[in-house]
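Re-run with default settings, no changes from the original entry. Doing this only to confirm the output is reproducible before filing.
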Amino acid sequence: MPSFSQSSTINVAIKRSTDEVYEYAFDLDNFPEWVSFCTSIRKENETWVMETTYGSMKIKITERNGFGVIDHYVSPAPDMVMYDAMRILPNGIHSEVFMTVFQGDWMSDEDYQQAIEMSKEDLHNLKSIMEGSF
């Protein structure tokens, strides 16, 4: 059974509707545009595979839903899964995007801090793209 994981939640306000942000972020074909370490992505049968600066990684996300939930399960190796919880919530007529980054048992504190910094960059990229300033 996995032990309790350290976590950190980051957020960004985006001046676009929750539907627009959700649809863009949910489409894995858009990952190379806003996910900092993703250089390309492709679907092999029913599995999504990202090419990254760290090598190939499989990725799964939650099914499309009306709650703004897009959780990511990234597997850099068969026995490793990085879980990031993403929520897109209304903030007036705009959106607030939250991402919770969990420290896997196999991640050093340094690796975990790097994952947090990359996630901050990713949310900044998403904001820039969605607001048209990328």
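Strands lie at 7-14, 38-44, 47-52, 55-61, 72-77, 80-91, 94-102. Residues 109-130 form the longest helix (22 residues).
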